[in-house]
């Protein structure tokens, strides 16, 4: 199981060019891929996305590809056609806004697309494969980091699940006292209300037992232990996913809330609150798992 948070980079020299690729990923419900580059790579976008999908299943993926020319002939090529367009745009802005200032060189420096590298993959077929291989290396580095981070998250989650298991054991031990305590409490209250009036004690105790059974939490404890077993199994499974863990955690929380609403025992109520605190921490971690 992997985290959705990761970072990877790779660099490769390619016949007068240098390709640098950075990949950053964060948690997301789906696999969202965003590709940016200092040059047009529209013809490679489908291949780049395919390589991302080969390694990553979920998360927001930001991938930046920087290509620079190297050597004596290095340097980005000025796009003369784009320069003419910018001049016309600036002159139009001056006219509409009533600006008298002359267009100067520094005004053009903010237009990064003036200096973008234009690559003809027909003339440089080796660049296509080189770029894709560099992308693959960066993604693999990012994926390795996601794997390490995921292992750390799982280890912490396992420890928290064991803590919850200990709290459930305390609740199970006190569960019978929850019923008997409620029974005795109701019996005393009724005798106080009757104020010495004679009643059928056998019938009274029978009715009180039926009422007291409504606070019996033994079934909830059994289901809670079952869900914890499923949670441990899901974390150990090779095909585990954050979505499955989140679903099981919801079921654990549901049983915990039921126990908390049925009990009148302060110790059980306190343990239920502690369980919910641990569940919230595990849920936050599970949301960052792929």
Q: What this model shows, in words?
A:
Its cofactor is a divalent metal cation. Keywords: Endonuclease, Hydrolase, Nuclease. It holds the Pfam family YicC-like_C. It is a single chain. The protein is α+β, with helices and mostly antiparallel strands. Among the domains are: 39 residues; 137 residues, no CATH class. It contains seven helices and four strands; from the N terminus they run βββαβαααααα. A four-stranded mixed sheet has the order 1-2-4-3. Helix 1 crosses helix 3, helix 3 runs antiparallel to helix 4 and helix 3 packs antiparallel against helix 7. The radius of gyration is 33 Å and the shape is elongated. The model has no long low-confidence stretch (mean pLDDT 84).
**CA-to-CA gap between the ends?**
7 Å
Q: Low-confidence runs (pLDDT<50, min 5 residues)?
A: none
User: Order of helices and strands, N to C?
Assistant: EEEHEHHHHHH
Taking the sheet with the most strands, its summary is: 4 strands, mixed
Which structural class is indicated by helix and strand composition?
alpha+beta
Lateral arrangement of strands in the main beta sheet: 1-2-4-3
* Dominant shape: elongated
Helix content: 55-70%
Please state the CA-atom Rg, rounded to the nearest Å.
33 Å
The DSSP helix count reads 7
What is the number of E strands? 4
Which percent band covers the strand fraction? 5-15%
**Average pLDDT across residues?**
84
Pfam family, one: YicC-like_C
Family: Belongs to the YicC/YloC family.
Domain Endoribonuclease YicC-like N-terminal: 1-153
Keywords: Endonuclease, Hydrolase, Nuclease
